Amino acid sequence: MAEAGYVEGHNLGIEYRFAEGQYDRLPTMASELLRRQVAVIVAMGTPAALAAKAVTASLPIIFSVTEDPVNLGLVASIARPGGNATGVSFQLSELAPKQLGLLRELLPAASRFGLLVNPKNENAETITKDLKAAAAKISVEISVIQASNSREIEAAFAALVRDKVDALVIGTDPFFYSRRVQLTTLATRHALPAVYNLRGYAEAGGLMSYGTSITEAYRQVGVYTGRILKGEKPTDLPVVQSTKFDFIINLPTARALGLDVPPMLAHAARPRRRGHRLTRFLLHLLRSGSGTSRRFVATHRLARYWRYSGHARSVAKVRMRRD
């Protein structure tokens, strides 16, 4: 937006709406923005894009989705969107089979994998179908667990432990990404190797991530929004498909889980080393104190301040108490 000459609070006003994982609220929010007579709706995530498209066929919509926008019914084609919507497709949902393959390469003896999906997201069925097909080709089992709020995420991990899964694939979902600290902390607490779809998970302590660059996608959304505000039409702006992929292994987390990363896999990845002392310390606290007179309670809070540059700041708080 800044590249196009727009600065919030100066010559640009932004109406923010957050569903906080409650996707059933999105249609009402989209209708409210329509009544506010905004110039353009920026819809981040597939649920938001579908909700916006359902309430208006004329107001410009710039979306960022993780699936094929043609199959979603958002545009007529990638090159010629038609209608009132265009944006970015970074197709994370299609990467689940590749993520499973990377996890299997790291854990060649694993035979039972978990898959966590959000049943309120349109992509849950597709991700499940694709991953089960990929699993059948390498003769491994998939245990599908669903969660759509923080409490259900806690219950999901308890179920995965009961099912004795060897590792976990986290499905693509905006709500899951907003709960990445909870997800990565639970995976660490239960010593469950997991693969994620965005680098933010690895930066929050997750074992590894493979997916397209969300930073680049957000930047392109800003570029297109600026062009719409300057008078261009969505139908004239082809959908941008992400081509940059990030494969990251968090080596401190791998070591804490007792995993030896194969040289070829390590070479292919971009390891995250920042904050490794903090990661090891938290892992020690989370695993200490069982059956002893002193129990350590670790609360891992990472506050991230994202800008289009992709830089992040993390803050962790650790609390100790005696029983």
Poorly predicted ranges: 271-323
The main β sheet shows up as: 6 strands, mixed
Going across the major beta sheet, what is the strand order? Answer: 5-4-6-7-8-10
The number of helical segments is: 13
The ordered H/E elements are HEHEHEHEHEHEHHEHEHEEHHHEE
Helix content: 25-40%
Inertia-based shape: elongated
**Rg result:** 21 Å
CATH fold descriptor of the largest domain: Rossmann fold
Question: Please, could you describe this protein's structure?
Answer:
It is a single chain. The chain has 323 residues and is of the alpha/beta class. The chain folds into 2 domains: 118 residues, 3-Layer(aba) Sandwich (Rossmann fold), CATH 3.40.50.2300; 143 residues, Rossmann fold (3-Layer(aba) Sandwich). It has 13 helices and 12 strands. The strands form 3 sheets. It has a 6-stranded mixed beta sheet with strand order 5-4-6-7-8-10, sandwiched between helices. Strands 1-2-3-9 form a 4-stranded parallel beta sheet, sandwiched between helices. A two-stranded antiparallel sheet has the order 11-12. Helix 3 links the parallel strand 2 and strand 3. Helix 4 packs across helix 5 and helix 6 runs parallel beside helix 8. The chain starts with 25 loop residues before the first helix and ends with a strand.
